């Protein structure tokens, strides 16, 4: 029986708890602790219900981890794009406690991946984060498990759903604001949607991918970033009449002058593979030495797919 300590119990963690319950016959995970920001702490060695009774908050993350007596910490707290905290500290505390760590939070991977990877390696525990960039569609596990001997040389991706919905609304003649409202209605825009349209969500994803796949040791702030805020409905419609569209594209390239990381609103032919995904779907192309360019696409991912990515990491960590 693998015992889990959940840090954060919001949309993703609750979807994970439902998935774990549904899969319990095949995968006997047990949630023995849940720590939240405002709802307090719940701990039970026998396993917690989907809607547990929360008591007073543990005094510190260390106290919580000690009380939960778990093998794996699952970090699912709110993203802090500027620093990656407090998730970085949560992960460090769990590693220090000798626990494996699974997270869907891209903050720690975008800001502190090399540090966390080295800490985990020295402590002999695993760190997994499949859902951090593509909502559960395999990227990191694809490279880890399916591309032995391959070096990733760079990547190109359309990784931000909100910007896509804004551009699609403008193509239909709507305004920038109407596109944002549609994204908010679907619940996919960040709480502060400037984070999406100014490119910071894409920059964080770019930094996370580059840190893991290209050993970049970078941060979102170091990614050259421009968003879609200067686009107008007139310009987008003019491009559409010429058979073109716009996507917020993340690019990483290793050249003679080192690694270039950038996020830009790029004009693409309608039939460009990067323009082929619509709405909330995302696409990532990996450029490799031995396998050329291959891609992964997430079609209309929902929170259940993000939860699946966390579940896949849990199964990977416990070695089944
Ligand atoms: N939603 C998605 O589809 C999706 C997709 C990919 C990745 N992610 C990532 O997954 C993570 C979780 O997303 P979500 O949508 O589940 O977020 P959410 O619904 O906002 O839930 C966040 C949870 O974190 C808790 N929390 C915040 N600060 C904390 C702290 N310092 N200590 C302990 N708990 C804390 C909150 O506690 P309270 O309940 O008490 O407020 C809440 O339970 C985020 O990093 C997000 O970027 C989400």
Write the layout of secondary structure elements.
Elements: E1 2-7, H1 11-22, E2 29-35, E3 41-43, H2 61-68, E4 72-75, H3 87-96, E5 100-103, H4 106-123, E6 127-128, H5 131-134, H6 140-146, E7 152-158, H7 161-171, H8 176-185, H9 194-197, H10 200-213, E8 224-225, H11 233-241, E9 244-255, E10 258-269, E11 282-288, E12 293-298, H12 303-318
Parallel strand pairs: 1-2, 1-4, 4-5, 5-6, 8-10
Antiparallel strand pairs: 2-3, 7-9, 7-11, 9-10, 11-12
Helix pairs in contact: 1-12, 3-4, 4-10, 7-8
The protein binds NADP nicotinamide-adenine-dinucleotide phosphate (NAP).
Describe this structure as you would to a colleague:
A hairpin with a 4-residue loop joins strand 11 and strand 12 (293-298). The radius of gyration is 20 Å and the shape is globular. The chain contains 12 helices and 12 strands. Helix 1 (11-22) packs across helix 12 (303-318), helix 4 runs parallel beside helix 10 (200-213) and helix 7 crosses helix 8 (176-185). The protein is of the alpha/beta class and 320 residues long. It has helices spanning 11-22, 61-68, 87-96, 106-123, 131-134, 140-146, 161-171, 176-185, 194-197, 200-213, 233-241, 303-318; strands spanning 2-7, 29-35, 41-43, 72-75, 100-103, 127-128, 152-158, 224-225, 244-255, 258-269, 282-288, 293-298. The chain binds NADP nicotinamide-adenine-dinucleotide phosphate. The site of NADP nicotinamide-adenine-dinucleotide phosphate (NAP) has 23 residues, from helix 1 and helix 12.
